[in-house]
Amino acid sequence: MCRNIKKLRQPERPATPEECEAAALQFVRKVTGYQKPSKANEAAFSTAVADIAAITKNLLDTVQRKEMRD
């Protein structure tokens, strides 16, 4: 579904918040089918991007910590 979203997990460096936000924006655009939301949907669109970016960053941070222990 989201073939064009760039892989963020890289062993040499953690993903930046900007990279997580860009990937979240691509995901929300793909899921909703909107490149840019209408005024009525703007708040929901922005909230979804922020939530997904935060969850993505948390996931990547957790995965990296776990792999460092192994």
Provide a short characterization of the protein structure.
Helix content is 63%, strand content 0%.
What does this structure look like?
By secondary structure, this protein is mainly α. The protein has one domain (17-69). 63% of the residues lie in helices and 0% in strands. It is elongated, with a radius of gyration of 14 Å.
Give a quick set of tags describing it.
mainly alpha; 70 residues; 2 helices
The overall pLDDT, averaged over residues, is 84
Helix count, per DSSP? 2
Q: How is the biggest beta sheet arranged?
A: none
Distance between the termini: 31 Å
Domain count, please report it.
1
Question: What's the structural blueprint in terms of helices and strands?
Answer:
Blueprint: H1 17-32, H2 42-69
Helix pairs in contact: 1-2
